[in-house]
Amino acid sequence: MSERNRGFSPDFLTELFQNPLDPGYADAAARRARTGKPARPGWSVGPITLVVVLLLGFLCAVAYRQTMAEEPGRAQARSGLVEQIKQRQGETDNLSVRADQLREEVNRQREAALGGSQAARLRDLEARAGLGRVRGDGVVVRLADGPAGGESLSGAKVGPARVLYSDLQGVANDLWSAGAEAIAINGQRLTATSTIRSAGEAILVDFRPVTGPYEVSAIGPGSMRRTYEGSRSALTMRRVSQENGLSFGVRDEDGLTLPAAPEPRLRYAEPAVSPSVSPSGGDESSDSSTSPSPSGGGR
Question: Transmembrane region positions (predicted)?
Fold first, then answer.
């Protein structure tokens, strides 16, 4: 069909269905019949294009060989870093054990110097502050990551439901509210200055990593479990465990032993230094104000 016979009528849809092919197809067919050669799609592979393609292939091959050649060095460096991390972790554990031994020796020396009633009062204060080892009946809340997930609607792999640091925060806070007197997470004792944070995919308790399954152990009164079961974190974690497969459970435990927390790094406020008297000969009995200390006092 020639182009002059193709026009636009008032009924454009009718014309479109009557002449569905573009005139370019008819021109290409006529040119192929006239020359006897198939029409090219609009571009050709010339010598310059072939050289560029070969050059790019050569550069890719060189980059691949260089990457593979450097892989053993990177693997060796990675294994060296892993060994250093394991060595430092072992040294830290040994120092922690030594610190516990020294702390017990200091406690024995101090109790011998203080006497009966004062030593008992000191032990009670240390237990309340988290600086002394305690033993008693309580509750253990266990959380663990869920099993590996399946596929999403888009076909992508879905990872397992993971325990978050905020989950441990909620469990610990609700146990305190339920009457807990001492709490530890995987053996890490919590105090008034403890922190539960995340660093990447790791959970840190007082800047020490803990791994799943996570056990939050608490010593407290006999009604603590019943009170905790009705808390917000318990209800939330049970719903998450039913929907996403995350493991969550609460059980009573007799004879729990919670270790002492490391000595905290406390900061003390110091009074501000009073300004010196001006040597201008003014009245020394005149009022002179001093700036308050950071703690709000210090007059």
Answer: 43-64
Q: Alpha helices of 115-157 — where are they, by DSSP H?
A: 116-129
Most confident among 96-105, 113-122, 239-248, 263-272 (mean pLDDT): 239-248
Q: How far apart are the first and last CA of the chain?
A: 104
CB atoms within 10 A of CB 27: 13
**Alpha carbon distance 179, 40 (integer Å):** 83
Domains and CATH numbers, the chain: 3-31 (no CATH), 135-147+159-258 (3.30.70.1880)
CA distance 212 to 168: 11
Q: How far is CA 264 from the centre of its chain?
A: 24
**Amino acid in the structure at residue 206:** D
Name the strands in the sheet holding 247-258, side by side, starting at the edge strand that comes first in the sequence: 188-189, 182-185, 214-219, 134-144, 247-258
Three-state DSSP at 208 gives strand
DSSP letters for 32-54: HHHHSSPPP-S----HHHHHHHH
Rounded to an integer, what distance in angstroms lies between the CA atom of residue 95 and that of residue 110? 22
Could you give the CA distance from residue 181 to residue 134 in angstroms, rounded to a whole number? 10
Distance of CA 79 to the CA centre of its chain: 24
What SS3 class is residue 205? strand
